Amino acid sequence: MTSPSRRERHKHERLDRIKAAAWALFSTQGYESTTIRQIAERADVAPATVILHAGDKAELLLLVFHDVIAKRIQPPETTSELPLPQTLLELLRPFIRFYGDYPELARAFFREFLYGKNRWQEQETRQAQAFLALLSQLIEARCRSGELKEGTDAELLAQTVFALYQTALQGWSCGALPLSEIESTLERQFIWLMEVHRA
User: Which InterPro entries match (predicted)?
Assistant: First the structure.
């Protein structure tokens, strides 16, 4: 494997500075109040450089959230003895709490991810697929342990779990479901769903 060229390293360094500046501003003064010019000034680059490397403000929000979400896509460490519905909640809880800490940013992110068209859409889709694969692995493990019945389609069940989670987030985003009720709502849905597949 060849090491990246100096030009590539500088490009990545600039992008890292831009993302750090965007997150600092988004998370302190809000998405709507932040401008590309402010991000550029904080990152010590020209506004055109921000656009070149990251895109417009909406694209930059997706790029920043991609990194934040990537850090949270991890299998639960201490939940192997919990029933599957509670294990799934343990997996989802860091995301739910993060969105609760930054509700305005989260709502803007959902809007851009679900309805926007930009250069980072494919990257976000791949990340969602990675999360689905993690859900599927957890479900497959519970099938092997005998918690779920033989023949359970782990991939389809993972897609259903993810769809329930996305629906709950959309309900919160549009004001139909309080954030404080997301976990209890999902727990009831997961318990019901797993009963259908219980061994």
Answer: Homeodomain-like_sf, HTH-type_TetR-like_transc_reg, HTH_TetR, Tet_transcr_reg_TetR-rel_C_sf
